[in-house]
Recover the amino acids of this structure.
């Protein structure tokens, strides 16, 4: 790209800011809580998802910006040109509106829940008899767990746990009412249920734990009168600083940093509307060293992530308030009870989760563990479930005498503690465990099984877009292949040797690896598309990913659009590219699908003058994936698989139910069906297709 063109495309007006684009994504999540086509309790769950997302955003992204401001860093970011202070100001403005929308949604759902006999009551709504029962519950179950913490000259403000709910209590001496007020902190115990049921036949009524504690607070301060109780929650900086190069043992270094995470600097203060004392707010802002812009006053309970558990409570009695149960079907490319290795010897096996079962991936490891012909298993693990059958299979394989090598990524954010534990368990079982590479996170999803049969070495490879997590596999949309193609096996062998030993970057036959090649390969494919379009007028790119932030790739897409190449992007979350800008991106459309399942697969399609090039990857088109992670991009060759994948992309691009399209100002609007056009929900369509395949086989 020429210097002049680069300068032209550097215009900050052509880009969305990363953090503001993320807030737009979380607003789309909250929109699902307002979608009346979603069952009531599922809508409630979307409020919990939005809260969980926002916690992580504050703990990492907002915390990082605040660190930059404290360090005096005021340089604009390199896309939309906003300084850290400008970003924090805009985040505060937008997010205060989003939080109001979230709690307005919560309040709007309460009457609907009450019609179903479900309600969260204030303790003031209870009868005298019910309050007496709750007092007994408080005395017997809650009081013994509580610890009032006085705040005075001898007892400073306590270091409160990240994301915990606390009560700031202002009290006065009953004997000497002229005496100055005193302050104490009571933490709402996370070990107790957050919502407590009121005993009513045929009704599901609950009172929140913090309300019960507040009501009986006087019992903790005998001889004092409770003047006010302020409900509040602190969010802290939870990003970890790991000194990798100087670490003799990365596992121990991460264990040390995990202990610090709970006590990082405060980045957000939440208080509940109608449940606070203004003097206490000023005190908390001062002692936490945060600004008024960091204060969020919520019109409802703090920390709506409790709705995850609340959502599950009625599964046996209110099934009409949940999504219809959908069962993942046997993969189309596997015939019934066929042995997975025998099937893969004949053809590549394509897997589309959760529409098709994740069980073959589990079986791939489990069968290898017990197969007498298998010599070795090698696998990368980024995130796994709490009771992982994949881990069980790897441990059993080691116990069965097979050579097992597992790369456990200890730096997988917010899964570090789980992964440290898994690493220790695997080592105890006899697996050879490696922890990744210095300054890089290994985000690749690959398993290699080496077999010796009839004096012949066979290699089987699974490559995927998603984690080896059997639980999230039912909630995330992902794809993968199992192949026995010889050169894929050779590539996989070289890849694992590169991770575990000392060797220069291997030359691959089929795989492309970040941080070295994937970005350059994407640019090369886009350059080819520009060239083909100039020759034949048929340039076409479709890319599906979680987020798009890499400026080099965005600028290349702008260049392709200027050349006339038609580009469709399906980007679930952050998208720093702005479509529809005249002379820059008018040939680019950007869609986001937010629905029942988390869109997680990464698919990249280049028309290549009719010689379709199709790839799956562990990587998004984000700078961190291109330069800070070990990622894999892999091609699909089987004509039947390529045909299926093109059809899948076409259905997603025609989604007019859960898809939103980005406008040139960066905002999103639902895609509306055209007149007389049938409604298409791509996720439900894929389940229908999986069911129909099964019916056709029967």
């Amino acid at each position: 790209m020429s210097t002049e063109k680069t300068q032209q495309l550097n215009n900050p007006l052509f880009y969305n800011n990363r953090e503001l684009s993320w807030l737009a994504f979380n607003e789309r999540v909250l929109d699902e809580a307002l979608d009346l086509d979603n069952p009531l309790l599922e809508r409630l769950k979307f409020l919990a998802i939005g809260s969980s997302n926002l916690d992580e955003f504050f703990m990492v992204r907002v915390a990082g910006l605040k660190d930059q401001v404290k360090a005096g860093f005021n340089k604009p970011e390199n896309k939309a040109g906003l300084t850290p202070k400008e970003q924090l100001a805009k985040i505060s403005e937008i997010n205060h509106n989003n939080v109001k929308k979230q709690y307005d949604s919560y309040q709007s759902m309460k009457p609907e829940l009450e019609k179903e006999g479900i309600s969260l009551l204030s303790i003031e709504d209870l009868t005298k008899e019910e309050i007496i029962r709750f007092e007994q519950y408080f005395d017997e179950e809650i009081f013994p767990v509580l610890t009032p913490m006085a705040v005075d000259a001898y007892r400073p403000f306590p270091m409160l746990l990240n994301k915990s709910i606390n009560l700031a209590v202002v009290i006065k001496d009953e004997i000497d009412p002229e005496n100055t007020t005193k302050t104490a902190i009571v933490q709402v115990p996370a070990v107790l249920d957050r919502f407590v049921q009121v005993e009513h036949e045929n009704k599901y009524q609950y009172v929140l734990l913090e309300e019960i504690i507040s009501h009986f607070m006087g019992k903790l301060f005998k001889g004092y009168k409770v003047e006010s109780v302020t409900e509040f929650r602190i969010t802290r900086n939870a990003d970890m600083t790991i000194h990798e190069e100087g670490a003799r043992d990365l596992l121990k270094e991460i264990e040390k940093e995990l202990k610090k995470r709970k006590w990082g600097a405060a980045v957000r203060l939440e208080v509940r509307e109608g449940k606070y004392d203004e003097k206490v707010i000023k005190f908390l802002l001062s002692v936490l060293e945060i600004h008024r812009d960091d204060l969020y006053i919520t019109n409802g309970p703090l920390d709506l992530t409790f709705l995850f558990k609340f959502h599950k409570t009625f599964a046996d009695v209110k099934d009409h308030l949940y999504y219809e149960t959908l069962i993942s079907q046997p993969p189309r490319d596997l015939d019934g009870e066929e042995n997975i290795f025998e099937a893969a010897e004949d053809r590549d096996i394509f897997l589309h989760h959760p529409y098709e079962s994740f069980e073959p991936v589990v079986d791939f490891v489990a069968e290898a563990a017990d197969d007498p012909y298998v010599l070795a298993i090698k696998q990368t693990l980024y995130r796994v479930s709490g009771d992982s059958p994949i881990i069980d299979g790897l441990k059993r394989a080691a116990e069965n005498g097979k050579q097992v090598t597992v790369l456990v990524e200890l730096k997988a954010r917010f899964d570090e503690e789980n992964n440290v534990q898994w690493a220790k368990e695997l080592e105890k079982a006899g697996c050879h465990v490696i922890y990744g590479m210095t300054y890089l996170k290994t985000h690749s999803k690959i398993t290699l099984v080496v077999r010796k049969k009839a004096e012949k070495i066979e290699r089987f490879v699974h490559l995927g877009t998603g984690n080896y997590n059997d639980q999230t596999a039912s909630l995330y949309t992902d794809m993968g292949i199992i192949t026995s193609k010889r050169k894929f096996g050779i590539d996989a062998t070289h890849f694992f040797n590169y991770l575990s030993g000392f060797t220069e970057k291997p030359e691959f036959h089929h795989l492309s690896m970040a941080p070295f090649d994937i970005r350059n390969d994407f640019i090369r494919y886009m350059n080819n598309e520009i060239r083909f379009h100039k020759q034949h007028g048929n340039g076409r790119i479709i890319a599906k990913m979680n987020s798009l932030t890499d400026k080099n790739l965005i600028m290349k897409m702008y260049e392709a659009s200027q050349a006339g190449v038609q580009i469709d992007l399906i980007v679930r979350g952050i998208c720093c590219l702005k479509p529809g800008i005249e002379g820059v991106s008018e040939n680019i459309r950007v869609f986001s699908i937010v629905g029942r399942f988390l869109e997680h697969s990464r698919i990249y399609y280049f028309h290549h003058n009719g010689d379709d090039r199709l790839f799956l990857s562990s990587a998004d088109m984000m700078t961190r994936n291109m330069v800070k992670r070990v990622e894999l991009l892999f091609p699909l060759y089987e004509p039947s698989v390529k045909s299926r994948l093109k059809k899948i992309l076409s259905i997603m691009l025609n989604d007019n139910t859960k898809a939103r399209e980005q406008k040139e100002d960066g905002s999103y609007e639902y895609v509306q069906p055209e007149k007389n056009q049938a409604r298409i929900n791509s996720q439900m369509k894929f389940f229908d297709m999986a069911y129909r395949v099964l019916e056709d086989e029967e």
